[in-house]
Amino acid sequence: MVTLSDILIVIGEIAVGVGAIIDVIAALGMLRFPNFYVRLHAATLGTIGGAFLPLIGVTLIAAGAEFLGVYRWFMAGGSFITALLILILAPAGSHALARAAHRSRAAIVEPKVVDHLEEDRGGSG
Amino acid sequence: MVDETQIMNFILFVMPIFMLAFVLYSIRAFKGPTIPDTVLAIDALTYDLAAFLVILAIFFRSPILIPVAIVLALWVYALDIYVSKYLEAKKELGE
Fold this sequence. Notes:
The structure holds 2 protein chains of 2 kinds.
Chain A: H1 4-32, H2 36-64, H3 72-103, H4 116-120
Chain B: H1 4-31, H2 35-60, H3 66-92
């Protein structure tokens, strides 16, 4: 007999498993990519795919698992709020960091083909 | 059909994958040649740590771990904003 709780738990486990694999791929990219602006891609992949997706999966697991007792709705709601916070805060934070790194020339763009933003500011391009 | 031991076995299977990702992020955080690299690695590491804490809350059946994850997510956003303001101020003041 397949109940609604079983469907919720299986969908949640699939989300957590896919998120874990995306997390390892993003960490490999963070380690292997050549400069800061390429690593930004791996970082946002790791936060949205590696943290947001498992949190939604944990929300579904906690909503479907009866053995957690009366606190399971608290756990489901808390993990959903954390997922929403990460969905909003992670792109905003990495965007601010990239803007500051390019304006202050803290990260060198190397290797590069062309950098039009640097040319517009009067740099070497 | 899906019982408690199946969920626990699944979480035990997923935990080492997350720990491998934490080790790889930590290598970049310690190695990172510039300040933004280090901050970006700590950023991704802490968001994943928040997700891992929520998974641990399911595993240990303790709801006390949930507010810790929310505070971690907010703290690392504050770290991003502080470091980017510091970098821009350092450029405007001329080192």
